[in-house]
Amino acid sequence: MTTSSYRDPEYGRAQDRGPVPVARTGRHARTPDSREDIYLQVQASPEFQEIRRRYRDFVFPMSALFLAWYLAYVLASTMARDLMAHSLVGEFNVALAFGLAQFASTFLFTWLYARNAVRKRDRAALNLRWDTQERFR
Q1: β partners of residue 93
Q2: Structure confidence by residue, pLDDT tens digits, 78-104
Q3: Contact present, 43 and 57 (Cβ < 8 Å)
Q4: What are 45-73's pLDDT values in tens digits?
Q5: Contact at 8 Å (CB) between 136 and 38?
Q6: The pTM is what?
Q7: Cβ atoms within 10 A of the Cβ of 30, count?
Q8: How far apart are CA 17 and CA 29, in angstroms?
Q9: Are the C-beta atoms of residues 98 and 81 closer than 8 Å to each other?
């Protein structure tokens, strides 16, 4: 009998209870409403696809923007040395301002991501989670 502890909802339970058996194939195949089937149904549902679409609609453009912003910094540092060396205030030059802006933009993008998740995905994902948990009962 094949066993696996990672499929057990009580993963990490006491060792004296032994490993959890894995679903069998063939004559002892899983029931139609097994966890795997439920998760596959949820994945194929329009609600899940909408959550994924909202995620992709935000993440891909923001990732492209962040990559372009970072590459602009790298390219300016290597190709526009005179511009980057231009002093703004004392020893504080354009390169330092650009570098600090990289850090600030990272926090800005993180805040935008969290805001987008709360406004456009979290409630739908939580509802889908509760619906999925109800199917397990």
Answers
A1: 87
A2: 999 999 999 999 899 999 999 999 999
A3: no
A4: 889 999 999 999 999 999 999 999 999 99
A5: yes
A6: 0.64
A7: 13
A8: 24
A9: no
